[in-house]
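Minutes, project check-in
Item: structure for the 113-residue chain
Input as provided by the requester:
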Amino acid sequence: GQPVYSSAGDNAEEIGSISDIVFSKGGQIEAVVIGVGGFLGIGEKSVAVDFGALEFTLAADNTERWVLPTTAEALTTAPDFVWAEDEPVDVPAADGMAPAAPDAMAPAPVTTQ
């Protein structure tokens, strides 16, 4: 939900807001997904931006902000970010044990006396 600005200057344009983070398998941030355009979340477009392109800086008004040196128009014309479907993989756990069946994890019924 953090806003992203075109610069640290007083006249900086708010070009979008961070809506998600993309991590590598090693747990490092690779990219951020920025919501661009739209009004009150309607018609908003998601664009992925390399995390290294963002700068967390002190603005001219002495507030901290995320800066991406581009324009909202440039982000609007960028390709849409689309999440790939996350398919579960039937792989045994590292210790060789298979995951428990869903019913095995259900709490025991409560009995009253």
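Outcome recorded: The chain has one helix and six strands.
No further action items on this chain.
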